């Protein structure tokens, strides 16, 4: 996932594409995004028991949708305030590294999380 997160870093240069080589790096960044997405879904199935994977992915999808709603609003506000796409693309390229740091903090060894379900009386 680190390789995919690092592949997205060239997105920071998108507001000023001045060469063909930079455009190729942007293409590689999109491949890094797709690799990140694939690994993220696999992370859920590797980290949680079979009976909980669908719920975890669903909760993650809900969080992503709500986050996308807020990011769209924040993007509009930033464009009004700064008249530049630079802060938006800086956030976009750093979000993967921040997410990877959070994943490593929550589950550093990437072990399966044991969920204990207690029976209701």
SSE topology:
Blueprint: H1 2-7, H2 20-47, H3 53-82, H4 86-106
Question: What's a concise summary of this model?
Answer:
70% of the residues lie in helices and 0% in strands. The mean pLDDT is 88.
Give an overview of the whole structure.
The chain is mainly alpha-helical. 70% of the residues lie in helices and 0% in strands. It is built from four helices and no strands. The protein has helices at residues 2-7, 20-47, 53-82, 86-106. The longest helix has 30 residues, at 53-82. The mean pLDDT is 88.
Low-pLDDT runs: none
Strand content: under 5%
Straight-line distance between termini: 43 Å
Q: What is the gyration radius calculated from CA atoms? A: 18 Å
- Largest sheet properties: none
Shape, principal axes of CA atoms: globular
Oligomer type:
single chain
What is the number of helical segments per DSSP (H or I, 4+ residues)? 4
Helical percentage: over 70%
Number of strands: 0
Mean pLDDT: 88
| Main structural class | mainly alpha
Helices and strands, in order, run as: HHHH
Q: What would the keywords be for this entry?
A:
121 residues, mainly alpha, 0% strand
């Amino acid at each position: 996932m680190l390789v995919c997160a690092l592949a997205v870093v060239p997105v920071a240069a998108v507001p000023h594409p001045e060469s063909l080589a930079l455009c190729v790096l942007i293409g590689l960044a999109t491949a890094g995004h797709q690799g990140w997405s694939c690994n993220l879904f696999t992370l859920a199935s590797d980290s949680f028991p079979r009976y909980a994977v669908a719920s975890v992915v669903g909760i993650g999808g809900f969080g992503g949708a709500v986050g996308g709603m807020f990011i769209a609003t924040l993007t509009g506000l930033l464009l009004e305030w700064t008249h530049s796409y630079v802060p938006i693309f800086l956030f976009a390229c750093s979000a993967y590294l921040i997410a990877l740091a959070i994943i490593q903090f929550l589950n550093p060894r990437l072990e399966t999380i044991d969920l204990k379900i207690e029976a209701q009386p």
